[in-house]
Amino acid sequence: MQNGSRLLTEMTDRSREVFRRVVEGYLTTGEPVGSRTLTRTMTEQVSAATIRNVMQDLEFLGLLDSPHVSAGRVPTQAGLRLFVDGFLEMGGLAAEDRERIDATLTQNDQDVAVLLDHVGSALSALTRGASIVLAPKHESAPIRHIEFVSLSPERALVVLVFADGQVENRLFLPPPGQTPSSMREAANFLNAMAEGKSLEELRRSIGAEIVQRRQEIDSLARELVESGLAVWENAGLSSERLIVRGRSNLLEATNEADVDRVRTLFDDLERKRDIAEFLELADEGDGVRIFIGSENKLFSLSGSSLVVSPYMNAERKIIGAVGVIGPTRLNYGRVVPIVDYTAQLVGRMVSDRGRG
């Protein structure tokens, strides 16, 4: 297929209108659009034969396809991409959609994971698609409090409380000879340094700080600090959490032949095989991105489209993403503003709770 922008300039007004009306009709009904249907909606009065000739030209360009002999046309993946890039008129967010999203994100629950779960359910219900919410990594969440708890001479617990209310507990083997006082000293040392810092920031500064304050902290406490930080670094705390909602919506909107492939997609997602790739989809730039069919390897098997947007913290750092998966005939004009608005609100919500 030729370059999209070049095609747009070369298409006549008539071929542009035929193409646009075929795609809009397909996105509305999911059915092929025939020439006789278009004769009733075209701006100029033209015969069905004339429209069929235009359709054939558009099919030759790779923009339309005929699924059955003598049937109407449907857009190809390339045609949908051209429509999204060059013809799609993006409306504003409907007041009803805005109210439902606002209601989800103004709940008083301080648990970010619970709120993001509500966000996923709201997105799925609003779009009738499947929603994906990538929760922020705790690597980027500020720390509120650290505590060491001795369970036995061979076992201790690191309790890490984040500013967003999340709590992480990890068992580790403490250095020999630890006492309750050395554990308290180590915790006090870390808490004095950790306030407002993320784990990543704390790890960067802890080594230098220990060297500088070597005379202020005894060797046992220093070993405990180093041991505890090693536990946090290696225990998988940096892994993201992927929230998937509305799986049944996508299955209902998918042709029977593709149902098994869609199930495979969701099985992969729920096993978190491709979380990093999902974030990379949104991590390449600001704003909403649209992936159609096989344009991205993560969702190509399902024959679905993905509308995804990153969300950022107060420092404009991308910390997660929200998205909607639906059939390729997704109502892009409505879904894009919903995803965009939700991502902005989620970013502000996570930042506000991080400062709490």
UniProtKB/TrEMBL annotation:
Biological process (GO), any one: negative regulation of DNA-templated transcription
Coiled-coil region list: none
Pfam families registered for this protein in UniProt: HrcA
Record keywords: Repressor, Stress response, Transcription, Transcription regulation
Family of this protein: Belongs to the HrcA family.
Known role: Negative regulator of class I heat shock genes (grpE-dnaK-dnaJ and groELS operons). Prevents heat-shock induction of these operons.
The name this protein goes by in its record: Heat-inducible transcription repressor HrcA
